[in-house]
Amino acid sequence: MKKVYKWYVLGAAAAVYLGYLFSGVMPPGTTLMALDQERMLDVFQHPFGNYFNENTGKMVMLALGIYVCWMLWDMARPKKYRLGREHGSAAWGDVEDLSRRLKSKREMSNRILSEHLRISLDTHMTQINNNMMVIGGSGAGKSTAILLPNIHNISTSMVITDPKGELLRTLGGYLQHEGVMVKVLDLINMKQSVQYNPFVYLRDQASVRRLISNIFENTKDKGASKGEQIWEDAAKMYLEALFLYVWLERPKPSQNIPEILRLMSLAKVDEECRTLGELDQIFSVLPQDHPARETYCRMMQAAGDTVRSVLFTANARMQAFYNEDLQHILQADQIDLASLGIGYLGDKKTKTVIFCVIPDSDKTYNFIVGMLYTQLFNELYYQADILYAGRLPIPVTIWMDEFANVALPDDFVTVNSTVRSREIYLSIILQNISQLKALFKDYWETILGNCDQMIYLGGNDPGTFEYISKLLDHETIDKRSESQSMGRSPGSSKSHDTLQRSLMTPGEVRKLSKKDSLILIRGEDPVIDRKYQTFRKKWFIALKQVPPYKAAKREEQKKLQILNQSSLNHFLRLQENGENVVIYEIPMEDLARFKGEKITKEFRNYGVAAAEDSETGSKTEERKRAGSVIEYMLKYDLDSAQQKEVQEGIRAGLSEQEILLYLKPFYTSEQMRERRLLIQEFLG
């Protein structure tokens, strides 16, 4: 505004001078009608002559009055000056100032973006979400400058897509040493993988359909014609019937993908395609209104040749599951997706890191990670929305490296826009913008718009150069022009103006230093800073002294799990929300009789154990024996009435061997009661 006033003052001086010149044009006694044009021309050709006369004061006042009237009008009319910003106001920010305003005092509560920039994960403090987009070509430092330091920081629980397993080899041992629960879904060396059973995370019929849709979407032939859609829809219906049957009718140990494959092998089509042999018999004994039977009958209403095509389509889609090692992974569940957001057994403090190790040269089994992602979001949403008032007790970061090569949930666009409020953070890692456009043709800008943090590490994609340059916007620069003319009337001139210029042109984006990263944060000026120097940090050098990651053998998994108060509250919360959870109490003195001093010490301060998923086991389990009553109860699924009979035996003073005489998973609670009373009567 001061510059505007300066021009007003200069204008007033010019008005005074013009009034002086006009007094020379109109000496006393001259009227407007009698102006001497030759005199006017002479005055303006010699502007510095002496023209003072009796009219000089009047003419100066008149000119100044006219100017003041114009000035007042100009000041009163609506206008908005943005001097120096006429063509854009983009500018570079200061890295240290930005970090000082956005970082937390606790280093573990920060996300590391570059050598000098930290951002707190507390969204209430920063007022930005924690979704992040990382773009960088091969060798640009996505793993070394972003993933390694942030995983090492252990600020949240994490799910990490890890091509070739390099991150696991580097940090797996360190994470274990720090008390983090490390689980590895290994699709390279499947024999070393933790087990993941999708059936554990099914809660309703809708979740069954989502799982089947995900399998179909991520195993489809990209070149298939749209005319084949009718077979796919019917095949989905067929698989839905099988999944519902296994989920609702089979005992818990048989609720898995291998059981689905076994049922599919029973479908023997007769010559007229009217029946599917033994499979028909399985569904025929179900109630008429059973969801599995209803779905199966709808599929079987098709013509004979159609049924044959449906079976062929379904078997083709499930072909990838016919791998012995993969079936072993899918047979049971050790990955426990819920623990990411709620801690070990709901303790609200133990962080979990899941590495999804995938080959970088073979995408055959990447759809397993896609299945996990689909159920991961559903499970974390359930824990947050239903059990913990909308926010997970432990934040979860999902590091989606190789984003373009891993199958994603069908509703990922919606997920990307809704995870923030539940303390789930997405970190999408791409090689270039073209990958995102190919995946989400109509919604790629929506994905980017929901990421308040973007890091560009360099690359060689022209489309990315253009996009980054456009995001940086324009600045206003000064322009100075000089010209000189030669000839009869030589002369020179200088002029000053303002122009629009991109903060960085696409060419300048391309030439970004290999040592630097360009960072854009919503609501802040962009900054350029050095990439995080991982290899020079003391913590990285010290990793050589940490023992490597050691995968726990499957048979070493704990059968007896001790609950603290937070864990107990978690299971109580599950019970209140209708989950199939039974909680029972065992007096300390009774428990000591079975496990002695060691377990008594472990159970001190805890008086409660929990057993999940009550259901009667099959008769083939009769030949199995547990080492103790406690192990037996945890090994087999007993309903609440059966568990009560065990408690009654303990209260009656029966020994472990005496309780095992009537503790059979295939006995009903009434049968157990009869045998318990007989034993008590016999013992007197």
Automatic annotation (TrEMBL):
Its main location: membrane. GO terms for cellular component: plasma membrane. It comes from Cuneatibacter caecimuris. Keywords: Cell membrane, Membrane, Transmembrane, Transmembrane helix. Coiled coil: none annotated. The keyword DNA-binding does not apply. This is Type IV secretion system protein VirD4. Belongs to the VirD4/TraG family. Residues 483-493 have a biased composition (Polar residues). It holds the Pfam family T4SS-DNA_transf. InterPro entries: P-loop_NTPase (IPR027417), T4SS-coupling_protein (IPR051539), TraG/VirD4 (IPR003688).
